[in-house]
Batch of 2 targets.
Target 1
Amino acid sequence: MSEHFDVLIVGAGLSGIGAAWHLRHQCPGKSFAILEGRDTIGGTWDLFRYPGIRSDSDMYTLGYNFKPWTEPQVIADGDRIRNYIQQTAREGGIEQNIRFGHKVLSAAWCSDTASWTLQVQKASGETVQMSCNWLMMCSGYYNYEEGFTPEFAGRDDFQGQTIHPQFWPENLDYSGKRVVVIGSGATAITLIPSMTDKARHVTMLQRTPSYVVSVPQQDPMAKLLRTFLPEMTVYNICRKRNNFITQLIFKLSRKYPNAMRKFLLKQVQAQVGKDFDMKHFTPPYKPWDQRLCAVPNGDMFKVLRQGKASVVTDHIDRFVKNGILLKSGKVLEADIIVTATGLNLRLFGGMNMTVDGEAVDMSKRISYKGLMFNDLPNMSNTLGYTNASWTLKADLIAEYVCRLIQHMDKTGTRIAVPRRNDPSVKEAPLLDMSSGYVARAAAALPKGADKAPWKLYQNYALDMDQLRNGELEDGVMSFSKPHTAAAAAAQRKAA
């Protein structure tokens, strides 16, 4: 027998717990459940357990808009972020609504009943049905079961240990070991200084450098404000300030890329010293074509100056018995190789979707206001910012969905679906970034577009205007009742 809810939320990570909080406060009469494939709260911040795992943006903007971040760390480690999410679930009375060990395999929409029916696999292997009027996808955008690792020739020849950060072995002993970390993104930048406490030496091996920027671990302004202002007031001030700075840097990077490039490289040079070869921190692309990497308190630069770590920019020829042979002919000796080579994108946790019996091909859909898709009824997807903190957008999306549900209740409608009724809308890439994980998945991703409401702004101020304050009945979003939708579907089929 199928259980029915007003709303089903998929994922009990940062987005899912936040969505549940907004739903409980804005739509208090709605029944809901959170379906979580794993056995704990936290999502990304529980899955990743490698040394030094931390946020890559400040917690005043990565935190929820309703719950202040009160810890002194601004760039917080994974344990603290996970505790923050769990505390939110506890305080919001959300924990009892979570179904752990419930992995969604498929979702089928029926216009006649205005509902989604989900096939859900329990941890025991049993498959059950659950249905809902609204489906909120908060499952992130990458594959939890498999990270991205390129094919390295001779991989089996290496006699040491090879590890992907997504599957870090518990109690790994790297004391006195030579460690090579392949990669130049946020994970590698985090791992390098964190492993130098025990490792004999840590080398970051990169093909292409990333832009990096040193950020303070603690916020002296927040510390001062807390002496005479309420915690939530301090949080909101710091949140607005940090969001403004982040957006300013992004806009300046897009408008004046050469000037920003010089600025970013100059601050790195000041950290590593004038004798350091800056080719290791000089990317061939413009700032913000890929995400900037934050270095809290310059910890990465400190271990480079101290000689505990080093950076090598080269191409891999093959793995060999005692390490990695580079194209230059040099061998990097290693006891442990960490492949911090990225993630595999996967929307909706890999579940299959149908609408009235027809399979949904997401590569043929375009994004509506960054949270819904054309001709997909009563379903939202939480996709955070690539140029700012994820949660800024997640909060806005949850608020907007609650507004939609309230509006449907007031108007007596049960179906909300964006219709692509303007032939002049031109498609564009969903994510305007050159990062490898985006490029690898581009063909399977939905599209963006060149004009509102289909344009994905990556801009908090514009999103706040359209999601929090914009008209719900905008001529694109269609509201209807089940029999109306069924009749319209039949007419379209006949035509």
Target 2
Amino acid sequence: MSERTVFQSIPRRHVVSCPPQASVWQAACVMTKANCGSVLIIDAAGVMQGILTERDLMTRVLAKALNAKKTPVSEVMTHNPLCVVPEMTVSDAVLILLERGFRHLPIVSSAGKILGVFSIRDALPREIDSAVSLAEFRDSVNDALG
């Protein structure tokens, strides 16, 4: 059985997004309504400027006591996030998430079309196990090489 791709694994095929000038409060409302943990920040030309995640809300807004209704997402989002192609395998994407400490990866086609966001929640246990095994193997090789 061949492994699923990140695009095959995502449950929603529409992009949850906000413009850069939206307030953090508006973005949080969009995320809540869509029941998702991130929102892509896309400008009027359709270009992704960044991503705002639950972690960003906690560490960059709440922990700093910023006013969510007055703070634009452009001030607290993660700029130019690492993106993956839709053909990437789920275990390779999970490996990136583990190694980089991310929770979300935007999926962008080779033509530049934004297709969605992959989350660790989209992976099956066997795909996570495969990524963890590969991460452990890489660690042991790095240790052996010094």
